[in-house]
Specification:
By secondary structure, the protein is of the alpha/beta class. Helix content is 35%, strand content 11%. The protein is globular, with a radius of gyration of 25 Å.
Length: 481
């Protein structure tokens, strides 16, 4: 039998119960246009204040968050955001600032903008950054627009093609298309790395650039990256780094040293602003010195201790209101300063260690399409025992019953039953062991009682759905209001 507070708030509604009274005279100075006024009373639940408080408290406890649970999301780093990041990023001097203020009244904020740009340049091996783009894909678009404008300035108008491996993140070809390029997809090696011979067949004077993630979406480092860089540069193309997997490289290597000319960073991923639910995000764009004048405007520069706005000569233009998502890069600044050079260099190593620990602990039950050590994330290709017809989707659903968020599934597309796992460096061995044990139990359940796994989950507020119907015909409210 359902407890009262397991029911929807409409179900516990009783006529004439009141939780709060909004007096009409509180709104006497507000005049709404006639066409926006209701013609009948809103069908709202009528409950006591105590019932209302308990309802929303219960709803909040059903939310899945990094503060209470583990996200093993491959290719979507979900690390803990230290509370000091939140505290310092919401200081009054930041939270009450307005971007239309004169530069002289926001020197502290502008100093952080320039210092963070400098830190990111050093971390990635780039020479300059714009922090103005709102998300990873937004940063990709900016980078591709820079590539396009660079070639156009050189009157090299025939460079209309961007090369992308088939193991790339889905935003790569989408961003290239939006920027007006023709996408040339090439088949990867079995481990998702670049196929050098396939690359050579498409390189010519029509190539504007190559987009690459390193390590790739299977967590494998491109060991031939210097050769790849030389091949692309030799035909006049530019090398673009998708920074979604930068977490694996911190303290180990830098994209700029690999030959990349442009990069975007998923600042929210690598530098600790968890972005579940669609935000917040930030996608700074970094470039080598010969591309600095193409960055989105405005950027902030240090003029002998005075911080001011600057619009690069050949800028691709403004891609955001003012300076992008300031709250994310304030947190990133605190994160980098808190760790310092001596501790930031351990991030990638610990992230890679955690991933390979999970991988080695489960390789007897889950199929490994890539046997060698990977970096911060890796991919299982479903269960080794496929006779029970338990699929990756079923395993992911069953994990919810054990209190874990499901990992990324069916991506990358180069494997049929992909289950991509990325634990990040912030998780303890005890948490990893709990996750490993849950996956081992699910493997045993799939062998002994496959029906149990096939119909999961059982402990979540919403049970197994017809996912196609839920996507096409979502029910987003209790009833028509």
């Amino acid at each position: 039998m359902l407890n009262t507070y397991d029911k929807l708030i409409f179900e516990i509604s009783r006529k004439n119960r009141i939780s709060h009274n909004l007096h009409k005279n509180d709104f006497k100075n507000i005049n709404l246009p006639e066409h926006l006024l209701r013609t009948s009373e809103a069908n709202l639940p009528e409950v006591s204040e105590l019932d209302l408080v308990r309802h929303y408290t219960k709803v909040s406890q059903k939310n899945f968050g990094i503060d209470s649970n583990f996200y093993p999301l491959g290719s979507c780093t979900m690390k803990y955001n230290p509370k000091i990041n939140d505290e310092l990023a919401t200081l009054k001097g930041f939270s009450e600032i307005h971007p239309l203020q004169p530069a002289k009244t926001q020197q502290g904020f502008l100093r952080i903008y320039t210092e963070l740009s400098s830190y990111l340049s050093e971390i990635t091996g780039m020479d300059a950054y714009s922090l103005n783009t709102y998300a990873g894909a937004h940063g990709e678009l900016a980078g591709l627009m820079i590539i396009k404008k660079y070639h156009e300035k050189n009157k090299d108008f025939k460079r209309t093609k961007i090369i992308i491996p088939d193991s790339a993140h889905g935003t790569n070809p989408a961003s290239a298309s939006v920027a007006g390029f023709e996408v040339i997809e090439i088949k990867s090696n079995q481990d998702g790395t670049m196929n050098i011979e396939a690359l050579k067949t498409v390189l010519n004077d029509e190539v504007a650039g190559l987009m690459l993630t390193n390590p790739n979406t299977a967590g494998v480092f491109e060991k031939d990256i210097l050769e790849i860089s030389k091949l692309v540069h030799d035909v006049g193309g530019l090398l673009y780094y998708d920074g979604a997997n930068l977490n694996a490289l911190l303290g180990i290597s830098r994209p700029g040293d690999m030959g990349f000319d442009i990069t975007h960073l998923n600042l929210h991923k690598t530098f600790s602003t968890p972005h579940g639910g669609g935000g917040p995000g930030s996608g700074p764009v970094g470039v080598k010195s010969f591309l600095k004048e193409f960055l989105p405007k405005p950027i902030v520069v240090d003029k002998n201790g005075y911080y001011d706005f600057y619009e690069p000569i050949d800028s691709i233009g403004s891609l955001s209101n003012f300076f992008g998502n300031a709250s994310v890069y304030l947190r990133a600044y605190v994160y980098i300063r808190s760790l310092g050079r001596e501790n930031l260099k351990h991030v990638g190593k610990l992230a890679n260690l955690n991933a390979n620990y999970i991988k080695a602990s489960l390789k007897d039950q889950y199929q490994l399409p890539i046997l060698e050590n990977t970096m911060h994330e890796f991919v299982f290709n479903g269960l080794i025992d496929k006779s029970t017809h338990v699929k990756t989707l079923n395993i992911a659903k069953r994990l919810l019953d054990y209190g874990f968020h499901a990992p990324t599934i069916y991506f990358p597309l180069i494997f049929n039953e992909s289950m991509m796992i990325e634990p990040t460096e912030t998780e303890s061995k005890e948490t990893l062991d709990d996750f490993i044990n849950a996956l081992r139990k699910i493997a045993l359940e799939a062998h002994e009682n496959p029906e149990l796994v096939l119909h999961a989950p059982y402990q979540t507020p919403v049970k197994k759905l017809d996912e196609a119907k839920a996507a096409r015909e979502p029910k987003v409210k209790y009833q028509d209001l």
